[in-house]
Amino acid sequence: MTPPDWQNWKPGVLATLMFIVDEAAGRVLLIRKKRGLGAGKINGPGGKIDPGETSEHCAVRETQEELGVTALDPVKHGELWFQFVDGLALHVDVYRATRWEGEPTETPEAIPLWTSLKELPFEEMWADDRFWLGEVLIDQKNFTGRFLFDDDTMLTHEMEWH
């Protein structure tokens, strides 16, 4: 399948991801997702933006719901554009925070995983993560990534660094 016409692409779903980084310990708070899109995979907490909700508020709310942790002063570092061959078109804003309140707790949605920044578990994550996650978490780079997926198989990718 050929990549979408990204210039005219319109997402059907707006969502967020949050990555809380403990810089002093060299680790990031990830989750093992228990249900929904990507169940079983390791990722950052996140989810769909509710009507009338800002992207940043969604990222903080989803992190609270999935881990019982409140991210403080999150910074948006990128956008992920996903087109799935089944028709799902998903736009995800990616946030990074270095301050938080609360202790990560398992919920019905997620298992918390503090993970070394030097040992990100890409083999258990979405295939696109290896193209941007380290640069965002460690180098604090800003980006736009565009990806075509067939189920959980990545078919094409494009990266822009700003």
UniProtKB/TrEMBL annotation:
Domain Nudix hydrolase: 11-142
The protein, known as: Oxidized purine nucleoside triphosphate hydrolase
Cofactor list: Mg(2+)
Catalytically driven reaction(s): 8-oxo-dATP + H2O = 8-oxo-dAMP + diphosphate + H(+); 2-oxo-dATP + H2O = 2-oxo-dAMP + diphosphate + H(+); 2-oxo-ATP + H2O = 2-oxo-AMP + diphosphate + H(+); 8-oxo-dGTP + H2O = 8-oxo-dGMP + diphosphate + H(+)
EC number(s) given by UniProt: 3.6.1.56
Family matches, as PROSITE patterns: NUDIX, NUDIX_BOX
Organism: Brevifollis gellanilyticus
One Pfam family from the record: NUDIX
Keywords, alphabetical: Cytoplasm, Hydrolase, Magnesium, Metal-binding, RNA-binding
GO molecular function, one term: metal ion binding
Cellular component, GO annotation: cytoplasm
Cell compartment(s), UniProt: Cytoplasm
CDD domains reported for this sequence: NUDIX_MTH1_Nudt1
GO biological process: DNA protection
Domain of life: Bacteria
Enzyme class at the top of the EC tree: hydrolase
Family matches, as InterPro entries: 8ODP, Nudix_hydrolase, NUDIX_hydrolase-like_dom_sf, NUDIX_hydrolase_CS, NUDIX_hydrolase_dom
Family as reported in the entry's similarity comment: Belongs to the Nudix hydrolase family.
Complex formation: Monomer.
Function: Oxidized purine nucleoside triphosphate hydrolase which is a prominent sanitizer of the oxidized nucleotide pool. Catalyzes the hydrolysis of 2-oxo-dATP (2-hydroxy-dATP) into 2-oxo-dAMP. Also has a significant hydrolase activity toward 2-oxo-ATP, 8-oxo-dGTP and 8-oxo-dATP. Through the hydrolysis of oxidized purine nucleoside triphosphates, prevents their incorporation into DNA and the subsequent transversions A:T to C:G and G:C to T:A. Also catalyzes the hydrolysis of methylated purine nucleoside triphosphate preventing their integration into DNA.
